[in-house]
Amino acid sequence: MNSLLKFITCGSVDDGKSTLIGHILYDTKLLYADQEKALELDSRVGSRGGKIDYSLLLDGLMAEREQGITIDVAYRYFTTEKRSFIVADTPGHEEYTRNMAVGASFADLAVILIDASKGVLAQTRRHTRICSFMGIRQFVFAVNKMDLTGYSREIFESISGQVRDLCGNLGLEKVQIIPVSATEGENVTRRSVLMDWYAGPPLLEWLETVQVDGFAEEGFYMPVQRVCRPDHTFRGFQGQIEAGSISAGDLITVLPGGEQAPVEAVYVGCKEVKEAVQGQPAMLRLAREVDISRGCVLVKDADVPVASVFDATLLWMYSGILMSGRDFLAKIGTRLVPCKVSESLYTVDVNTGEQRHPVFMQKNEIARCRLELSSPVVLDRFSGHRTLGELILIDRVTNATVACGVIEEIHGSEENKKEHVTPQMRARKLGQTPYIILAETPEAAAGFETELITQGLHTMTVLFTQEREIDKAVFAVDILRQAGLITVVACPQGQTEFEERLRELTSASPAGRTPAPDETAGTAGAAVSPAGRILDLRPGGPEEDRLMYENTVNYVFS
């Protein structure tokens, strides 16, 4: 028998994910007699006119059955003669993308369903991209509902072309495309005579025989989950071995401290063993006393860095927006540490893969962000050590999990210490984005400044009048912005030249600064300043600017 296979079914809404898995369970006789009887009875009032509705085997919630959709992740365990399986049936609605991401985090393989009558949709691309950055490398695209297209070979080949283009953009190499009809059972557990033009294996046969390559990780490492201290004579350190093996007598290094100690004994459960290997929960007793607590990592022959600044690809899963400067708790391995999203580098268009540079992230968007931890933590790139390269972000107020992601690049702390202080560093230190806020009157500007200061933000007002020289006003605004402050500018509408000069500040390179008024000799002068933007809060200003201001002031997610 082949090894255990953990896989996920995903794709757009109503592509037939639950029906597909339900039909596999039904055809392979993996149901108890009472389950089969209940399925037949429930199907009489279902949406298939009395025919068996295989999706009912997985969609157990009342809301799921009423709407004919999947909401929560359903896990099923089943075994055939050739293999054992654990499948996570995940929802297709964009609203429940976070549930799908949870299922993808445990899987070795993804079965992505595509409705043959619709082709590759935006949610299909989103789910494929999420599975890819979650580390899944083996994909099978099941082109479902072929019965609705008359089992057309031309339609299947057209969709296969779309799939190959998608996989090419994501760099996916291990891909299989299979035409199926989940409701009729064609190419699900047996070969279809109605699609004799397809020469490949049916879906279940492919799942039974596919070889999923394991993820090779360097050396041994075990994040410490708990310190076991039953009495004064014993101290053991418990956790799951994520890679490698450990034996009594091995010399281990304790990170982040760097202390070394030999292993005196290894336990699995309550039993002392000679060796423990990857995947086993183990307890290690050391030959000498070392300060170790939850969040430390025990390593042997593994080069694992300790850092506090890194870039990560995040899936934003919360209903509010994400803006640079917000604080969270980051869970990496077994360590929970305060962190800040210091910079949103770019978001990824799920349809084209293009990089965009919006000011904030919205729910279900994928973005590359820079994060700063409050203290150095044992972590690594996801491609190096998976458990130390994946993370979740937790809102510090609501305790809700708002994002998940993987670490892509680590920035060395020693290198950061040698950098010159930049405007971006000043703004990050203050925990805010140095916006320029335009107010119609001095009274309105004072109101905005009071509101910002009340919320603990750092700000100052610049009053602009026609009598005051434009160069001096622009210079003052730029100095405040480079200091990391939010600058409120009292500027009546119609001051076109002054507004254009302010907009130059946000579009120029962060490498330099705006020349002082006496340096420009009355010329326009290139405005060079840190990244940011103008929020026009005057009457008739953009609604997007108003929304961004409210989120900055309120800080708490809506």
Describe the structure.
This protein is α+β, with helices and mostly antiparallel strands. It has four domains: 5-209, P-loop containing nucleotide triphosphate hydrolases (Rossmann fold); 220-300, Translation factors (Elongation Factor Tu (Ef-tu), domain 3, Beta Barrel), CATH 2.40.30.10; 306-415, Beta Barrel (Elongation Factor Tu (Ef-tu), domain 3), CATH 2.40.30; 425-554, no CATH class. The chain is 26% helix and 30% strand. Strands 7, 8, 9, 11, 12, 13, 15 and 16 form an eight-stranded antiparallel beta sheet that branches. It has a six-stranded mixed beta sheet with strand order 2-3-1-4-5-6, with helices on both faces. β8 (226-228) and β9 (236-240) form a beta hairpin. α12 (470-482) packs parallel to α13 (496-507). The two termini are 51 Å apart.
Structural key phrases:
558 residues, alpha+beta, Rossmann fold, Elongation Factor Tu (Ef-tu), domain 3, 4 domains, six-stranded mixed sheet, 30% strand, flat
